[in-house]
Amino acid sequence: MFAGKRVIALGDRDGIQGPAIAECLQTAGAQIVYMGTECFV
Amino acid sequence: MYPPVLRSAACLLVHTPHLVRHGSKPSRTLPPPPCSPPAAYTAALRDYPAAVGYPPNQVFIGNLPPDALYETPQPWWRHPLEGAQPEGPFGPILPEPLFLGWLKAADPFDLVLLEEQFTASLAPQLAAHPLGGAADAARLGPGVPLATLTARVAAGQALPLMLDERLVGAVLPGHAHDAALAPSVLLENLAAKASAALALRRALAPFAPDAPPLDALTHILSASEEAVGDRYNRGGGNLAKAIGELAGCTNASGCDIKAFCAGPLHALIIAGSLVATGVAESVAVVGGGSLAKLGMKYESHLAKGLPILEDCLGAVAAVVGRDDGHSPRLRLDVVGRHPIGAGSAQQAILEALVVAPLARAGRRLTEVDKYATELQNPEITAPADRADVARQNYRLLAALAARRGEIAPDALDAFVRAHGLPGYAPTQGHIPSAIPFLPWARAAMQAGTLRTAMFLAKGSLFLGRMTTLADGASLLLEAPG
């Protein structure tokens, strides 16, 4: 599903963080074009 | 070495519904002053009795134990605590009009103007308040005519301070060509200063009998959320000294500790270290309210039919001193730090802040009675589709305990209930990061119902765009004896 797709990975400091999302999707063949972690509190 | 102990801890709230429009989000999305906000916004602001009766606020000031929230019907805003009092063992919930007086008292450059009749009504109240006094009332001055305020606001030269539909004050710029001294920035800084000074007074004698009196304190560390400075040094700081001056701590000096939301925990560790080494006999750690975070999620609250729940500034103060034989001990041998090379994955952060320091002390995760982590009130965050932050963090801790074989995988919820806390603190940045539990832990340890509590706070350094790193700090508190 993610193979060959370009992905923007936006994570949550208290949830799933950007690097974790990116690593999962890279393993699935996606290209990470932007990765970040934000804080919502 | 002088073993450091927690001599006192204070937590107070200031109900400031009319300052919400000056919070970061409302100020960017509402029509700018002097235009009035939309009727739906105004109608959603809570009055003082509603803020006082709000169960999470009662927990914050010590009138209701945190675990009582598990049994309190939700939504909490629809179920105010019957007979709720504005004064609690940890501090008060202060009303807005009085706080505008303290904003003026905190202003040494006459940049806060208060209308003269309003000032006259405030002076005796400020003088008589247990946290106030004659000196605060004298700092109000005579006030100014309403016409002066109206003219300055109409000319775009000042930020209006309103109570209901009435213009009662204004904040002037500190310099015509310095963005760091704009009225909005000064209001933010003064709100932090005034609320922190009130918390500091509350954490010292005579309110806190185990803490020194005002004029005996020698060190203050402020971990407030603000940026005090000018155009040549926008974050110059040392609000700590200004806070101490306002509070009346004539023998104190201090400095600021800045680490986003982990600031207060870093400050607590440093305070303990200053006492342990003999550099200081007692150190106050203070955190003033965050005006910028008022109304942060107001749009979600309006959309979901809630009142605007982010209407309170929170302030905390804790005094660390030498061992008096009956105060909880700061275990400086069980301090967690988050090294730069550890990475920002949740597991890495918890390993650094929890597992590593406990392991050094030969303890398992299950051997800490209570963990205090991000304690944001979930009723504030849920309408914005943010999860229950406290529960999320506790489940991560529980998952780590399960991964380490300390608990069974199906015992996560039981771990959260036994070792965690419900979220109850206002979303005031550093304020909900672990430290609201300090007075609860102190009281329980002195009563013999709690042996150990670990405080862990996280800081979102990446928000400042200087690093992609997060940060954190942790400290174990232990009952005396």
Commentary on this structure:
The complex is a heterodimer of chains A (41) and B (481). By secondary structure, chain A is α+β, with helices and mostly antiparallel strands. Chain A has one domain. Chain A contains 1 helix and 2 strands. Chain A has a two-stranded parallel sheet. In chain A, α1 links the parallel β1 and β2. Chain B is of the alpha/beta class and 481 residues long. Chain B has a domain of 150 residues: Peroxisomal Thiolase, Chain A, domain 1 (3-Layer(aba) Sandwich), CATH 3.40.47. Chain B has 18 helices and 13 strands. In chain B, the strands form 3 sheets. In chain B, strands 2-1-9-8-6-7 form a 6-stranded mixed β-sheet, sandwiched between helices. The mean pLDDT of chain B is 96. Classes of the chains: A alpha+beta (41), B alpha/beta (481). The interface between A and B is medium-sized, with 13 and 22 residues.
